[in-house]
Design goal:
The chain is an alpha/beta fold and 653 residues long. The protein has 21 helices and 31 strands. A seven-stranded mixed beta sheet has the order 5-4-17-16-18-19-20, with helices on both faces. A seven-stranded mixed beta sheet has the order 12-11-8-6-7-14-15, sandwiched between helices. Strands 23-24-25-26 form a four-stranded antiparallel beta sheet. It binds 5'-O-[(S)-ethoxy(hydroxy)phosphoryl]adenosine. The site of 5'-O-[(S)-ethoxy(hydroxy)phosphoryl]adenosine has 22 residues, from helix 12, strand 20, strand 25 and strand 26.
Length: 653
């Protein structure tokens, strides 16, 4: 055993020197794209995307306009066409005789299994759509969804899509107050939630916890509660209804209502540089075109034979695009797993790959690093030979984790696609095409067909070999259309640096001689913890809302496992003493206000924070201190003595 392990370790060490991994011949033989003619075909990006929209999506009214770019940065796609997203994800497959195809192999925390076919999904979606309508949910009304990874979350999203009610899914890890905030700013009229959610053998009473937070929302007239765990939950007469009762009482037939292509399909709140989350708006026709196209090309999808598994939570964009809309639009079979990767044991993912014959597996670098730390003996317990393609998303992957993934999970035979994209882009933008282009560990790859990317200096010149701002220079169908209720913030956030036709991503990156793009990191105050986006301002505002705290500065520091970790520098109000208990209290306070995912890993109590003369906290200096670097420029500090005091207080972990 030890011999085996050390030879595996040696093999991994050797592969670290390999700069590029060409697609294996066996993979190329069966691949969807093997010819770079695809890039020629996309020379006219608008025509390319229009062709994808015509061939991959069913339209109730065909569109004649591709991209309308007459009012940048407010671009539209296929604006004179109409379609229904749930029709494209369900009805058309059932009508084509594929109703018995499995949409999801659902696997519960305690090992329960549910097989959900396209026909079954369609039946539930129609009933829930009718139930929502009967309760007064109209086209254009926003519906909140706060559900764990259970099949009902897919039904909920598609039922909303069916009646043109944009959904806003809130990740189950967010605290009730964050849910309420998102429902309030989106004027949601309904919420679909659950009695309780399970996590590693424990059940938390979701509905009871969220009830207080939503009590004062004046627009919210309906709450649908899925009975998933049987924990008792309070129900408000006239507002709340159980999901099963609502479905049983509803008319089973609800024809899919065609929507204009630009009708909003969903809002998804994401962290930006201020404490206020951004309501990213995606529309129907362009988004669906983007996710269906990329799900097929990047994942080399064969819908008749593949079993696809994206381990993201549905509450993030990755779950929206590659658990729900992309795979279902393409008529694929997916695995959906309720639980955590280490429960009941650290081999559960590999057990599920074997059990369901997963062929394409898509996860995040943090998860890969965790699995690598747990050890190769867990995957070794299972037969992973069904796998033929692996993917990663959410953060840069370090070459060591890449090579481990390639060797231990992929058995050396599976290409890896490192997919770069964002909540805002809706769909994958930069990746290799796995049957055509070699993969380079640590580099996402090339802009996909129809995608135009550039790296710019701050003054807008080409960055050449140097790191630069990553920008997207042509509109694409799955792009966000605006920020909910805030066109101005949309323009300022993404299009104020280089003008209304150059979308500023917020990442820095560099490009090699072959044009491969490697992401370096965020250039704004967004922290990426385990591939989850958080803003420093959100964490700070949660901290200062506690009576003991005077000021707070949160920063992201490098972390071996999670990519980045949150460290918070805190000054206390006069008369308050720092203590380990206070630190624990404040961490819990952040968990209560935002969610556990935002809890600072370390809290450092300081007498003063470094500020400019105008009073702006100098985060850059704090980061230097926290990461033990030489201090950068301190000449703009209001009080230069603060830094010495600060450094004296910070003991490196
Ligand atoms: C980062 C997740 C490196 C990046 C789909 C981006 C990545 C942010 C990659 C978006 C990747 C995403 N390599 N970094 N392959 N994919 N990122 O909105 O900083 O949650 O801007 O969307 O994650 O995060 P979001």
């Amino acid at each position: 055993m030890t011999d085996l392990h050390s030879s595996l370790d040696r093999h991994i060490e050797d592969l670290l020197d390999v700069p590029s991994f060409p697609p294996p011949a066996a993979f190329v033989r069966q691949a969807v794209v093997t010819d770079d003619g695809v890039f020629d075909a996309a020379a006219d990006a608008e025509e390319w995307w229009s062709e994808q929209a015509r061939t991959r999506i069913d339209w109730a009214t065909p569109f004649r306009t591709g991209c309308n770019d007459s009012n940048p940065p407010f671009f539209t796609w296929f604006e004179d066409g109409t379609l229904n997203a749930s029709y494209n994800c369900l009805d058309r497959h059932v009508e084509a005789g594929r109703g018995d195809r499995v949409a999801f192999h659902w696997h519960g925390e305690e090992g329960e299994q549910r097989t959900i076919t396209y026909a079954e999904l369609l039946a539930d979606v129609q009933r829930l759509a009718n139930a929502l309508r009967e309760r007064g949910v109209r086209k254009g009304d926003v519906v909140g969804i706060y559900l764990p990874m259970i099949p009902e979350v897919v039904v909920a999203m598609l039922a909303c899509a069916r009646i043109g009610a944009p959904h806003t899914v809130v990740f189950g890890g967010f605290a009730p107050s964050s849910v309420a905030e998102r429902l309030e700013v989106s004027n949601a009229v309904a919420l679909i939630t659950v009695d309780g959610a399970r996590r590693k053998g424990r059940t938390t009473p979701t509905k009871a916890a969220v009830d207080d937070a939503i009590a004062d929302l004046s627009d919210l007239h309906t709450v649908v509660v899925v009975r998933a765990t049987g924990v008792t939950c309070p129900m408000t007469d006239g507002r709340d209804v159980f999901y099963d009762a609502a479905l049983a009482a509803a008319d089973p037939v609800c024809p899919a209502d065609p929507m204009p292509a630009e009708h909003p399909l969903f809002l998804l709140y994401s962290s930006g540089s201020t404490a206020k989350p951004k309501g990213i708006v995606h529309t129907t026709g362009g988004y669906l075109t983007g996710v269906a196209t990329t799900h097929s090309l990047v994942f080399d999808l064969k819908p008749d034979t593949d079993v696809f598994w994206c381990t993201a939570d549905v509450g993030w964009i990755t779950g929206h695009s590659y658990i729900v809309y992309g795979p279902l639009a393409n008529g694929a079979t997916s695995v959906m797993f309720e639980g955590a990767p280490d429960y009941p044991d650290k081999d559960i993912w590999w057990e599920l790959i074997e059990r369901y014959g997963v062929t394409i597996f898509y996860t995040a670098p943090t998860a890969i690093r965790a699995c690598m730390k747990w050890g190769s003996e867990y995957p070794a317990r299972h037969d992973l030979s069904s796998l033929r393609l692996l993917g990663t998303v959410g953060e840069p992957i370090n070459p060591k984790a890449w090579v481990w993934y390639h060797t231990v999970i992929g058995g050396g035979r599976c290409p890896i696609v490192d997919t770069w994209w964002q909540t805002e882009t809706g769909a994958i933008m930069i990746s290799t095409l796995p049957g055509l282009q070699p993969a380079k560990p640590g580099s996402a790859g090339l802009p996909l067909p129809g995608v135009r990317a550039a790296l710019l200096t701050p003054s807008g010149e080409d960055a050449g070999d140097d790191p630069g701002y990553l920008v997207l220079t042509a509109p694409w169908p799955a792009m966000l259309r605006t920020l909910h209720g805030d066109d101005q913030r949309y323009v300022e956030t993404y299009f104020s640096t280089f003008g209304p036709r150059t979308y500023v991503v917020g990442d820095s990156a560099r490009r090699d001689r072959d044009g491969y793009i490697s992401i370096i990191g965020r250039i704004d105050d967004v922290i990426n913890v385990s591939g989850h986006r958080l803003s420093t301002a959100e964490v700070e505002s949660a901290l200062v809302s506690h009576a003991a705290v005077a000021e707070a500065a949160a920063i992201g520091v490098h972390d071996e496992l999670t990519g980045q970790a949150i460290v918070a520098f805190v000054t206390l109000r006069a008369g308050v003493e720092s203590s380990a208990e206070l630190e624990a209290t404040l961490r819990e306070h952040v968990a209560q206000r935002i969610g556990k995912l935002a809890r600072p890993q370390r809290m450092i109590f300081v007498a003063d924070l470094p500020k400019t003369r105008s009073g702006k906290i100098m985060r850059r200096l704090i980061r230097d201190v926290a990461e033990g670097r030489e201090l950068g420029d301190v000449t703009t500090l209001g009080d230069p003595t603060v830094m010495a005091a600060l450094q004296a207080q910070v003991v490196r972990p």
